[in-house]
Amino acid sequence: MPRAVGRSREERVAREREVLDRCIRALKARGIPVTGAEVARRTGTSDGQVRKIFGQDRPLRPEFLCALAQYAGLPVSELFAALGWLPENEVLPPFAATLARETHTALAALEQARPLLESLNRPARSAPLTAAEALLADEEGAERFEVRLCEVVSGGRYRTTTNSVAEFRLRDGHRPLPYERALYLATTAGVRDLPRPAEFAADPEFWRTDLEVRAKTHRALDTADEYSWQGGPGHRTWHPVATTWPAHLLVQDAITGQQQVESAESGRDTGPIVFIGGRHGAGLAAGLLAQALGRQFVLVRENINVTDHGHIIGLPFDAHRDRVRSWISIAEHIARRHAEGHSWHAVVLVRAAAFTVAGGDRLHPYAARLLSETSARLVYAKMPPAYLDWWSTRIDGNYPPGERDGAAWAARMRSLYGQIEQVLKNRREPRDLLLRVPEPADELLPQVPQIPAEVMDWNARVAWTALCRMEGARLAGSGSSGLRPGRLAGWRELLTADPHAMVPALTA
From the centroid of its chain, how far is CA 159? Predict the structure, then answer.
């Protein structure tokens, strides 16, 4: 065993204590249990020996300290030097060791952030525009297809673009590819949702063209954003925006369909905000709130991951992660940042279904616990049953008649929201904002592209209510302090004069 020359027993014991304490602090900082059994397992030492070493009834040995240092993530050479086990000329100066570690960390972080940095080099584009550019950049695609872009405007008092749409059509004189060729292109591109045999048999020309369009756009759309293909045979909801029917339509929510990095002019930091809702309710309010606060917007959906720095990235096209796993990763990221004393400047939109295993009617226990214990501020607006009924009928229009049971979906969602509300009430967190949207005054027309005016208007009011609760003093003054440019800023005068602008609280 190495021995420090001319060193008293008391000095040796003190230095060993200092080294052991440093290892223990490093283990705790990494969230690793500092128990005799766990350290023994990791270092290949008996539990009893570990207890004696930690109690300094046994001296430190090089092989044990080497294993312990690696387990704690500390430089072995520095600890050996602190005990006098290495000559000074064999030890890196502290600043050099620190520089080496920090350089390695910086390079690793740069590689992890590379997808985000690449995305920052180009302006944010909607999925329909991205798909149009990808198809028309393909020589064969440009020759065979034409693309039409349009937007859907919704709202009564608060009108805005709520959906972006791209329609893809074969040019006159061109025919669909043979089935084998179209299927080969789609499968090699990574397209998953292929038509079922019965669907294909009902309209083979439509599906051969559909496979070709998706094949030539899929890789460009392989991001963390959300979009959907609409316009199939038997569908009804998106018929009014198409020039022919059936149609090949790529549709994206213009407010909450894209992950957005935070503004360069971020407002006052109140910690992350988790907004519970969906397009059938107050989900749009989350995107409006993020824009108004200058925060990063995060949509919890399948096939996403969050980096250590809070950037949302899409998983490779051949991977799969369901929504509950995505929520768990987001919630654990919030918890880690909070434990480290850092905040995440984000508004996170999570839908009720993300708290369940796919198709389940009960909350996933761990997902619900993360919601209950999160340090984030929660915002939830309870929607009247008419909203769920409207949305279920609207979604039915995206399938052939009779293929989907909208009533069963609405009943399941009502049950899930009831369970979520119980979790929120048990939290008893005064910073949470729990609201109730009143019953609609008018009929909510289903199976049309536009969001009903009443639904859009109440989304604006929910976002405004949340904004006022968080930035009330700033909004009360003159100018636009606390309110970033965007939809809410443009509606500020309308909201200030709106007698229903402040949404009532949810009470038992």
Answer: 27
Domain boundaries, the chain: 9-91, 127-253, 273-497
The topology (CATH level 3) of 273-497 is Rossmann fold (3.40.50)
* pLDDT beyond 80 at 474: no
Q: Is 352:420 a contact under the CB 8 Å cutoff? A: yes
Residue by residue, DSSP assigns 164-221 as EEEEEEEPTT--PPPHHHHHHHHHHHT---PPPHHHHHH-HHHHHHHHHHHHHHTGGG
Q: In a 3-state reduction of DSSP, which class is residue 358?
A: coil
Q: Which CATH number fits domain 9-91: 1.10.150.130, 3.20.20.70, 1.10.260.40, 3.40.50.150?
A: 1.10.260.40
Q: What digits encode the pLDDT tens for the residues 291-316?
A: 999 999 999 999 998 988 888 988 87
Six-digit token pair at 244?
A: 């022919």
Residue 233 and residue 241: Cα distance in Å, rounded?
15
Q: Tell me the backbone φ, ψ of residue 133, rounded to 5 degrees.
A: -65, -40
CA nearest to 461, candidates 344, 353, 383: 383
Whether the per-residue pLDDT at 5 is higher than 80: the answer is no
Dist. CA 503–CA 465, nearest whole Å? 6
Q: How far apart are CA 289 and CA 478, in angstroms?
A: 20
Q: pTM of the full predicted structure?
A: 0.75
Query: Is residue 17 within 8 Å of 56, Cβ to Cβ?
Result: yes
Residues 343 and 365 sit within 8 Å (Cβ to Cβ): no
Which residue from 438, 473, 94 is spatially nearest to 282, judged by alpha carbons? Answer: 438
Give me the DSSP letters along 410-428. Answer: HHHHHHHHHHHHHHHHHH-
